[in-house]
Specification:
Layout lengths: L2 H22 L2 H19 L2 H7 L5 H20 L1 H13 L1 H6 L7 H27 L9 H28 L3 H7 L2 H7 L15 H5 L3 H13 L6 H25 L4
């Protein structure tokens, strides 16, 4: 077989391994998925009327439309923490050190983790999206092309954050440290435009919310699904995704090439 065929075979094997782990130990994925679902229900049913009135909306449905794009991206940030924990577990248990000695494609180990995490992120987004639709979310006049672009943005954002999470897992001494180091992936959406417009924030706080990867991605997704203005957010979201993906890949590959201590 050609080297490409062997590489694809090894990557497929590692992907199956990670999906089997996720199926046998679903508690981690379910726990991470519970956070965005609970926040969605909390902000819609507890704060929905107040937040909608504060933003000039007529009723709770206006705030549902506003908050769902941010929750979907928060779902990705929450789900990819599982990749950091999984990689750190493999590192601490010596599995990755063992894989280094085997006659397999060097990148297949990391690619298996990344692709498996992206698939889990997409599945989680679909589940949270179904909950959002069940409680009243409706996309306004989004065309098929805009839906396709929204799905592509979610997948690309999941890929970028997964590479960052894999790097965190490679650099962490154990699973607990990996989980703690990946917490900013959940906290950053809380200080973005996910729950309230940037214009409503204090002036000193706005740069924190504006100059981070979640805000342009949220505004782009919101524009695609709800027909609001996207402006430069689309290009900024794409730049953040590509930059984070390259940074995470180089970080992960560098840590993978290092000899275990």
């Amino acid at each position: 077989m050609s080297s490409l065929t062997l590489a694809v075979r090894d990557c497929s094997t590692m992907l199956r391994r990670n999906l089997l782990h996720a199926r046998r130990y679903p508690s981690l994925t379910l726990n991470l998925l519970l956070t965005p679902v609970m926040l969605l229900l909390l902000f819609v049913y507890i704060f929905g009327d107040v937040m909608s009135a504060g933003m000039g909306g007529a009723d709770r449905s206006d705030y549902i439309a506003y908050v769902v794009p941010g929750i979907l991206l928060m779902t990705i940030g929450s789900t990819v923490i599982g990749a950091a924990v999984s990689v750190a577990t493999d590192m601490s248990e010596g599995i990755i050190a063992r894989f280094r000695t085997m006659a397999i494609h060097r990148g297949s180990v990391l690619i298996g983790h990344v692709v498996g995490s992206v698939l889990q992120s997409v599945a989680s987004v679909v589940l949270v999206g179904a909950v959002a639709v069940a409680i009243g979310f409706r996309s306004k006049d989004a065309t098929a092309l805009e839906w396709l672009a929204a799905f592509g943005l979610l997948a690309l954002f999941a890929l970028a954050l997964t590479w960052i999470a894999v790097g965190m897992g490679m650099a962490s001494p154990n699973a607990e440290a990996a989980s703690n180091s990946a917490m900013p992936l959940i906290l950053l959406p809380l200080i973005s435009s996910a729950f309230t417009p940037i214009e409503a924030m204090p002036g000193w706080f706005r740069p924190i919310a504006e100059y981070q990867p979640f805000t342009p991605a949220i505004e782009t997704l919101r524009g695609l699904l709800l027909g609001t203005e996207i402006g430069n957010n689309g290009w900024l979201a794409l730049a953040w995704c590509l930059g984070l993906a390259v940074l995470g890949y180089r970080w992960s590959a560098s840590k993978f090439r290092q000899d275990p201590k």
